[in-house]
Each structure stands twice: as structure tokens, then as C-alpha cells.
Amino acid sequence: MALKATIYKADLTISDMDRGYYDSHSLTIAQHPSETIERMMLRIAVFALHAGEYMVFTRGISDDEEPDLWLKNFSDEIEQWVELGEPDEKRLRKACGRAGQVWLYNYGGRSADIWWEGMAGKVGRFDHLNIFSIATDTLAELAALCERSMQLNATVQDGVLWLSSEQGSVAVSPHRLYGSAER
């Protein structure tokens, strides 16, 4: 019997001083059976960093044709493709060919470092690609905020996201590895 996704709910209030974006989102997050709590919480944090009226979670991990999040315009064109993990060169090429901006958040400690060592020389040919690294200890701190029903506050200033709940507060400071675009 196939395992089913675990459903989480999050009321997320965002104050993004960097972009001048202030709004609340009621999110329903499906945690894929193969997805860790750390990765799922990182998806929420990345949503807060890129939030907009039409930013949505996709089927992501369970569909090779979609990223973890995307923002599409009314013409169904992908304006932002937001991915987590260590995609191969082919997937990055596809994302850059389909989207106006591509954002990749790499995580995982040593395996992420090894991935970047192999990929660093290959990404220069991809237009509008931005790659960031997330520290392993940040993932553990994000996981500590997780509950089946969450009330989260996100404040973004100077590129740092502060995500907080009654469980505590976490600073998410993505380290830029490649690219120069602003969110």
C-alpha cells in the first residue's frame, strides 16, 4: 500500500521590508512520504522569501515537470521557478529555459558542498539562475518550529528571514553561491 502525504496547515504573516511586501497566507502543505520535516519547513521559509499573490506550492517532489514553488502570470508563463535540493544540469537547463527567474536553495551539508563543487563550473551558461546554500543547523532549527497547525510570522530584512512561532524563532540567512538577481 502506498504511503500518503501528511497534511500541514500554516497561517503565515509576512513582512518583507526588502521588497515592500506585507500579506498573510493560509497555506496547506502536503509533506510527501519521502520528504523530511526539515525540507518541508524549508519550503515554507522559501515561500516567505518569494511570496506574492500568485506564488504557489506545486507537486514538486512527486512530479519531475514542476519545481517546489512557482509563480505564473495570467498567460501561464512561469515568472519564478523555485527549487530545493541538488538538481542535475539537465533540470537546471530546463528550468532556465522555461522561467523568467530560477531560484535554487541547496541544503544538506557535505553532500550539498560536493554537489556545488561539481556544478559550479557548469552554471555560468544558464541565464537568470540564482543559487543559494542553507546551513544544516538552520534546517534543524526550522524543524523545531513544525506543528500540524502552525501560526508563523516571517520578517525579511537585509536578505535575512526571521521565521517565528510560539515554538521559537529562526534566522534563515541564505548564502549566495551564484547569480545576482534580487527576489
UniProtKB/TrEMBL annotation:
Its domain of life?
Bacteria
Name of the molecule in the record: YaeQ family protein
Q: Which organism is it from?
A: Vogesella aquatica
Q: Mind giving the lineage of the organism this protein is from?
A: Bacteria, Pseudomonadati, Pseudomonadota, Betaproteobacteria, Neisseriales
